Amino acid sequence: MPRYILTLTCADRAGIVLACAQGIVQTEGNIVESDQYSDPPTGLFCMRVSFDSPQGLDEVRRTLGDQLDRFHPMLGIRDESHRRRALLMVSRVDHCLVDLLYRWNIGELPVDIPVIVSNHTDCAAVAERYGIPFSHIPITPDARDDAEAKLLALVAHHEIDFIVLARYMQVLSPHLCDRLSGHIINIHHSFLPGFSGAKPYHQAYERGVKLIGATAHYVTEELDDGPIIGQDVIGVTHAQSPDDLVAMGRDIERTVLARAVRLQAEDRVFLAGRRTIVFSA
Hints:
CATH topology of the largest domain: Rossmann fold
Shape: globular
Strand content: 25-35%
Radius of gyration: 20 Å
Largest sheet: 8 strands, mixed
């Protein structure tokens, strides 16, 4: 029996959950998992429901759409077997890319990865090892617009649902950030906010910090200031060098990014202004 994932955001008001449940009953469905949250600062209601139904996708969408239309929601319904499609971007440092591909290869990440994009060729062999097409799109100041046009062409051609910057060390243009708002995930090698910019581990070392971390967030026009999806930290001591912190940080970056990608792939992240609502599995 097909399993469907329903996501809904709308202004909060009485009756939304009841209408959703009634619609699922009309599809002969059975709810497997349900999460909902009303966000006080924005007045936004967010809901994610996983349910089984013997009916086809079009019929399920029509039935639930009719039930929920009066709430004017942003409504998404997909067959869970239809996996989200992610485009990975990387520059030269490959630890996040390799980790995502390993998790994808063993079935831990429920995504399809049709292409890997890079502004360098260093990671071409990694893509080849996993049998994924590699697209080299170099970036120069005079050709940035052309490069982003090529990227958008790949997004359209491969029907990409979201982009993952797996240590892609280029700033995206405001136009691209706006065009793909809420669909680009970045991993920042620091616990934001704080120590943003170059060499955050060296800054942390100089300040004698006792925790270092990593932050996965959506990309916006403001550098390293997008809505945060996930974070983690690890304890350090005065005896550890900047190189030690870099090595430890790589581990955190891998796990935080992989967790964010899985949450995005499973439709568990909702934007609420500058914040996110995250329904963890």
